[in-house]
Amino acid sequence: xxxxxxxxxxxxxxxxxxxxxxxxxxxxxxxxxxxxxxxxxxxxxxxxxxxxxxxxxxxxxxxxxxxxxxxxxxxxxxxxxxxxxxxxxxxxxxxxxxxxxxxxxxxxxxxxxxxxxxxxxxxxxxxxxxxxxxxxxxxxxxxxxxxxxxxxxxxxxxxxxxxxxxxxxxxxxxxxxxxxxxxxxxxxxxxxxxxxxxxxxxxxxxxxxxxxxxxxxxxxxxxxxxxxxxxxxxxxxxxxxxxxxxxxxxxxxxxxxxxxxxxxxxxxxxxxxxxxxxxxxxxxxxxxxxxxxxxxxxxxxxxxxxxxxxxxxxxxxxxxxxxxxxxxxxxxxxxxxxxxxxxxxxxxxxxxxxxxxxxxxxxxxxxxxxxxxxxxxxxxxxxxxxxxxxxxxxxxxxxxxxxxxxxxxxxxxxxxxxxxxxxxxxxxxxxxxxxxxxxxxxxxxxxxxxxxxxxxxxxxxxxxxxxxxxxxxxxxxxxxxxxxxxxxxxxxxxxxxxxxxxxxxxxxxxxxxxxxxxxxxxxxxxxxxxxxxxxxxxxxxxxxxxxxxxxxxxxxxxxxxxxxxxxxxxxxxxxxxxxxxxxxxxxxxxxxxxxxxxxxxxxxxxxxxxxxxxxxx
Length: 617
Ligand SMILES: Cc1cc2nc3c(=O)[nH]c(=O)nc-3n(C[C@H](O)[C@H](O)[C@H](O)COP(=O)(O)O)c2cc1C
Ligand code: SF4
Ligand code: SF4
Ligand code: FES
Prior knowledge:
The chain is of the alpha/beta class. The chain contains 24 helices and 20 strands. The strands form six sheets. Strands 9-10-8-7-11 form a five-stranded mixed β-sheet, sandwiched between helices. It has a five-stranded mixed β-sheet with strand order 13-12-16-14-15. Strands 2-1-3-4 form a four-stranded mixed β-sheet, covered by helices on one side. Helix 8 packs across helix 11 (233-247) and helix 11 (233-247) crosses helix 14. It is globular, with a radius of gyration of 27 Å. It starts with 6 loop residues before the first helix and ends with a strand. 52% of the residues are buried. Flavin mononucleotide binds next to strand 11 and helix 21.
């Protein structure tokens, strides 16, 4: 794309790109996100390239490598336009068939279409699939339309129009008012009002100001920020440009988790392309506004996502938090006023500027506006990235979008908010998903992790997992977090090993209160949440472990015992074959038994038994 020197230039460039795109009769979009890469989408794309060449279709059919549309468990995904046909689990062998059947003859390849698990009907377009039907995809919408390495694709869908509007039709105060009026709150966890933060940073005196995009995303299992930066990096860059113009910043950083190589690569490509196109650097869009962005790789620790630790990490220091008596909007990076926002927060900005604060604030609840992206994982049929309007209930997310329990076991809770969040029990699933309701229920929105738990999950074990995770991630700077989490972990280890007593629970609660009250940063302050919420809603499970020395979910190995019900066993020998410790005895076609002295409680026999004859007590 040639250098763009004015808003009119941008519009002309868009028209030219669209008219060029129109020469293609069809578009094949292959998802190139990290999930689909793991499923081998690169081979699928190469097969399309070969197939289109062989059939002499290259000039008539465009092939795009796009970002993640969210339904990663069904990858590799391929969408065909303009018919909008959604193919899932596409293999290299399917490619010639897609070209001959769909591209050349307009027929569907039935076995690649999604099948509704209820009525067994094949579904053609993604919008009709239950996983997508209740979603409101504002931020993820363009992920499957654009190639993240091609700035032209972003410009074609209206990209950088909001920047042009902000620079040429609004002044910084008006932009900040628009963001304030929209009600946008930070998507990184705490939910601080974005417009207010920008205003505080703008008002702080200083010639040099910085803005930062936080793509550290340290929560285990969360991948919404990664998918946005990987799939639509220009939308984040555009948000940052608007923010920088409003705040008066001339330099920005995109801090990317070092385990996210594709997100980092796409951010770098986007920066280079935007600079070449006159959308970044000096005299942006011919307006006289200068702004530069560079990427910084994460320090590799969960705590580096915390604002002050992140700033220290960019400065080249150890990523440890400091006291926030002086806010980073006043003294942040190299002691200069600094505005830090999460990836999803920045991605919302161009939408608000383009469609207005009123439109944005009409979505969501009174105090939580817009949509939120969650990574829905755990014991549900459909897992992946879901974008929903705030205020939707947990039930709708888990049952309508997630498709309900994975294999018949009742769902008992959902863990939200990542390691600092909490577990919300099934009887509260009518709760609307917004910042305040989740916090009131003892959990939090966090950055958007959502793990669905069923009867097969032990809540004591769950709490133990998060405490150990956070203990390992604690930077160790302050004593309550360093020592308190260690002791809490030891108590939970004891309970799951059958060494707990009633005193353990009191001690656990007391320690949790001290760690939350006296830790320096958000890691320690919120670390007790998973334990406290598990105790609040699932106390009887803790008591069973202590009083009965029993794990009701059959998870804590020290407290369980496997046996085979004689009357149910058909003597197929599947369990005997899989048992790693040779703890199963019995002849073919006769009932088998478990030699408890050899059993390591691995659970493999229960998993393979087709007649449910293996019992855990
Ligand atoms: C231990 C810890 C880890 C955090 N990790 C992240 C993270 O990975 N990504 C993020 O955006 N915010 C993270 N945060 C929140 C940030 O400190 C900060 O509040 C946020 O990036 C501000 O952006 P927002 O206002 O757009 O939400 C973390 C906070 C704490 C205490
Ligand atoms: S609360 Fe924990 S992670 Fe935060 S500064 Fe203290 S020791 Fe470090
Ligand atoms: S639980 Fe594991 S070790 Fe024990 S009998 Fe079954 S397969 Fe063997
Ligand atoms: S990576 Fe392809 S659907 Fe998510």
